[in-house]
Amino acid sequence: MEENKLVMIKETFKNEETGELTPGVTIILDGNLREVLEIIMGKQGYSDYPEALKEVIFEGIHHFVKRNK
Questions:
Q1: By CB neighbour count within 10 A (0-12 exposed, 13-18 middle, 19+ buried), where does 31 fall?
Q2: Among candidates 24, 22, 28, which has minimal Cα distance to 49?
Q3: Which residues contact 53 (CB under 8 A, 6 or more apart)?
Q4: Tell me, what's the pLDDT at 4?
Q5: pTM of this prediction?
Q6: In whole angstroms, how far apart are CA 39 and each of 10, 44, 47, 48, 66?
Q7: Residue 25, Cβ neighbours under 10 Å: how many?
Q8: Which of 3, 13, 14, 46 has the highest CB neighbour count under 10 A?
Q9: Phi/psi at 27 (nearest 5 deg)?
Q10: Count of CB atoms within 10 A of residue 33's CB?
Q11: Any bridge partners for residue 22, and if so which?
């Protein structure tokens, strides 16, 4: 995998209770992305990749919304 490449696989999931279709994304953690997440995990005390990635996504969304008000 190239160092600055992000591989995402688009999926659709069905809620078994409501039947609603919900989009999903699988992210391949490799190269620079994996290294950066490992640094974040070590410095912030996150126990796994999903926990660290969730924080990165929410921080990014917060920054984006704040910048684009």
A1: middle
A2: 28
A3: 27, 29, 37
A4: 73
A5: 0.75
A6: 27, 8, 12, 12, 26
A7: 8
A8: 46
A9: -110, 130
A10: 20
A11: 13
pLDDT at 2: 58
**Residue 43 corresponds to which amino acid?**
K
CB 67 within 8 A of CB 56: no
Rounded to the nearest 5°, which phi and psi values hold at 9?
Answer: -115, 120
pLDDT in tens, 10-45: 999 999 999 999 999 999 999 899 999 999 999 999
Q: Transcribe 21-53 into DSSP letters.
A: EEEEEEEE--HHHHHHHHHHHHHHT-SSHHHHH
